[in-house]
Every structure is written in C-alpha cells, then in structure tokens.
Amino acid sequence: MKLINKGKTKDVYELEDGNYLLKFKDDVTGEDGVFDPGANTVGLTIEGAGKSGLKLTKYFFEILRERGIPTHYIGANIEEATMIVKPAKVFGNGLEAICRYRAVGSFLRRYGMYAKEGQPLDAFVEITLKDDERKDPPITEDALHMLGILSREEYRTLKELTIKISNIIKEELAKRGIELYDIKLEFGRVGENNEIALIDEISGGNMRAYKDGKYIEPLKLERLILAD
Ligand SMILES: Nc1ncnc2c1ncn2[C@@H]1O[C@H](COP(=O)(O)OP(=O)(O)O)[C@@H](O)[C@H]1O
Ligand SMILES: [Mg+2]
Questions:
Q1: Of 104, 88, 111, 65, nearest in space to 183 by CA
Q2: Domains (ranges, CATH) in the chain?
Q3: pTM, to two decimals
C-alpha cells in the first residue's frame, strides 16, 4: 500500500490492484477549535469523527449506486475507517461543486448586500477551485473553459450531477425531518472513458443540515440519519 496523498480529513493510498484506499481521520475542518464545513483548514480533532463520516458516506454512496449515479465507490470497512474507491483524475488541481438550498456560509458573506440569511435558493450550483492558498475561489463556466480545466460539456454534466445528487441527499434528510441548507461535492474522471463520477465523501463534514431551525453537528447528523 503506497501513500499518495495526505488530505485534511483523509489519507489516500494506492492498492496493488490499482484501486485507492481512503483512510478517514478524526480531523475535521474549521478554525480555532470550532467546526466549519466551509473551512479549508483542520480546526480540531473529534474522536470518532472519521468512522462517523465514513458511515454516512457509505450510506449515501450505496443509495446513489442503487439510483445508477456514477461514483468512485467500491466498498467500506467501518471498523478500520477505510473506503475502497476507483482512482479518479481530478479537474485541474481539484474542484468543489456546491449546491445551495438556503443562503448561508460564503454565499451570504459574498452576497449579503442582496441576500437575506436563510433565504431559500433553488438548488443553486457554484463551482470553486480547491486552492487553500487563495481560499477556494468560486469560478465561472467561462473561466473553467478558458483555463482548460473543464470542457463546456463536462461543465454541463458536472452541474446536472450536482443537482441530481444533492436533491437525493436532500430527500433522504427530509425523511427524518432534517433540512439540507447546502452541500459540497467533488467529482473526477474515472476509468478508461474518463466518465465524470462523484468522488470523495458525503458526510456531515461537507454539508449544512438543520433541524427545527438549528444546525446539526456532523456526529449528531450521522446518529439521526442512521438511527433507523
Ligand atoms: N477516487 C478518488 N481518486 C483520487 N483522489 C480522490 C478520490 N476520492 C477522493 N480523493 C481525494 O482525496 C484527497 C483527500 O481527502 P481530504 O482529506 O478530504 O482532502 P482535502 O484536504 O483536499 O479536503 C482529496 O484531495 C480528494 O480530492
Ligand atoms: Mg476534503
């Protein structure tokens, strides 16, 4: 097993058969000891956060597999906090696709002159560059195309998949009386055909979910969703 990438919340290894192994760590994003799914620094360590994030990730990726959505998911081992995935080539040095249902987080920080906090948004998609140094700037379709990061067709696919997947997650949460405010997804090109597929994870660490108007922390979200 060869370590190929040490991320903020997961380490990536290459297996002998060419697949990748993601090791979920107990590190979570945030600042000064306060968890924030929108942050791009490790803010704190919470015991059990890795396994908890993997449980939710496994749960959601298996739902997506049943729905025929292309993802990198192969299987998960909760005890070891590991997930086996198909290797993906990311776009440029990595992109994030955000789907927003309510105005919070960086959307509100940027557009607060016009947007009200918590204002409903209709599955509004934003693409951001994974660039910690420049604080993950949002990028337009034209810029992605011009800079050779995504073709126009790939952009369309990415946007459609983002909305489709986010709506599935939103429905799953709604079944438990939980409202999804926003979610951050990652995509890559997978296999010989470079099919665009969902990669990375789907857990409380990359979404904002609320119940009765109150934000739900990642570990609590996992317990609420997997309780039944
Ligand atoms: N199937 C995959 N193929 C290649 N890289 C992947 C795959 N799934 C996730 N990754 C990458 O694994 C890295 C580690 O995850 P993470 O700790 O969340 O990193 P980050 O610090 O970038 O958030 C990320 O760069 C992510 O893009
Ligand atoms: Mg990450």
A1: 104
A2: 2-87 (3.30.200.20), 89-217 (3.30.470.20)
A3: 0.96
